[in-house]
Amino acid sequence: MNDEIVEDLQIRDGEAFAAYLLRRGYYDEKRHRGSRRKHSWVLPSRLVHHAERLGLASADRLVDENTLVPVLYRFLSRSDEAKLIGHHLGEPSLGITGMVGLTVSLGPPLRWAPGICLCCMSDDMEMYGHTFWRRDFLLPEIRWCARHNAPLYRLCDPCTIRFGTGRKFDMPFYRCLCGRPLALRPTTVHSHERELAKGWQALLDSNFAPFIGSQEIAALTNSRARELGLVTDEQVYEDRCDDYFGAQRLRALGKSIDFLFNSKPVANALLGQGCMRHPVHGIFLLVALFGNWRDVENLMISQSEYLEALDEGLVMIET
Length: 319
Ligand SMILES: [Zn+2]
Ligand SMILES: [Zn+2]
Description:
It is a single chain. The protein is mainly alpha-helical. It folds into three domains: about 10-95, no CATH class; about 110-185, no CATH class; about 190-310, no CATH class. The chain has 16 helices and six strands. It has helices at about 5-10, 15-25, 45-55, 60-65, 70, 80-90, 95-100, 120-130, 155-165, 190-205, 215-225, 240-245, 250-255, 265-270, 280-290, 295-310; strands spanning about 30, 35-40, 145, 150, 155, 185. Strand 3 and strand 4 form a beta hairpin. The model is unreliable at about 1-5 (pLDDT under 50). The structure holds zinc ion (2 copies). One zinc ion binds near residues 117, 120, 145, 147 and 148.
């Protein structure tokens, strides 16, 4: 067997796990009653089984590098976090899509299509000699590649349907499957779309601020909302929120990602009583409150360092 073929069978850093299975020719699996199940691109399951069967690195590493878990878990409670990990490592969990807030994102068939960054594709060609589908661009709410500050593309609508239902698998390419130019993902041209992408990329890295989870995000969201005078201990000032978000012209961008400004989950997040489950919604709220991702990231890093030191017993508690 020649070395290049062996090399091509490896899963790449950041390659969407289901896309890797398809690349290897594993289209679907038999269920107990004989029906077939397609591999989920956004929320894959049975990674322990697949890792053993395909002779891959540990399933835990696959979860970290080839799924969306590193960003999804940060917006969930401890018990939901365990359910999310269980779903990925073992058998699929019922209601998992709703639990991570992605029901609408993945609902209508045409909304979902994997994204493509032309610059990432060129880098991958240079490094590996082939392209692959990246986990970073699976959610339709992400319209930019934060690494390259470049817009994301997708297949045209007819090709998306064919791609989703057919038995033939294609790697991403510089043109659509039909030969026409790739379509751009819909965008609102708001500068915060790039900030959202930066936040998404940062939180998707399991090494970035690993101690930052839903409690820390809720606290960060609440402290900034207080600073801005949008909330007190128990009350959300809806008029002030309307003025604040309106002044930043965030309505269209919010609407385009199905973010409901005057909803109970947003009120709870502003009050620090919970965290938005949908990761892009949670990041959007932080970016809207702080005005950019860099300030959020700096606070997360400093909080994470503090929490890590606390965990290792390095922080002296004053009495
Ligand atoms: Zn890129
Ligand atoms: Zn096409």
